[in-house]
Amino acid sequence: MGARYLADTNVVIELLGASLPISGSNWLQDILDQDLCCLSVINKIELLGFEGESTEMQHLQDFIDFIDVLPLF
């Protein structure tokens, strides 16, 4: 497997909230489509601590379910 990217918590929130610049959003979506992006378990915990409306929280949970989460070693 080649290089992979570790998504930052704030970037995920901005992606799901459609507040990333279009070039960044397109780049990140391309990386996600290629399965080249993952989260750390710390990012997952931070994301689950985010408080939003129920639809936002469902999008967040769907994203977490979709992406690989790296454990602590």
Q: Can you tell me about this structure?
A:
By secondary structure, the protein is α/β, with parallel strands linked by helices. It has four helices and three strands, in the order βααβααβ. A three-stranded parallel β-sheet has the order 1-2-3. The radius of gyration is 12 Å and the shape is globular.
User: How big a fraction of the residues is strand?
Assistant: 5-15%
Beta strand count = 3
Rg of Cα set: 12 Å
Main pleated sheet: 3 strands, parallel
Low-confidence stretches: none
Q: Quote the distance from N terminus to C terminus.
A: 19 Å
Order of helices and strands: EHHEHHE
Shape: globular
Q: What structural category characterises the helix and strand content?
A: alpha/beta
Q: What percent of the residues sit in helical stretches (DSSP H or I)?
A: 55-70%
Q: Within the largest sheet, what's the order of strands? A: 1-2-3
* Overall average pLDDT: 91
> What's the tally of helices?
4
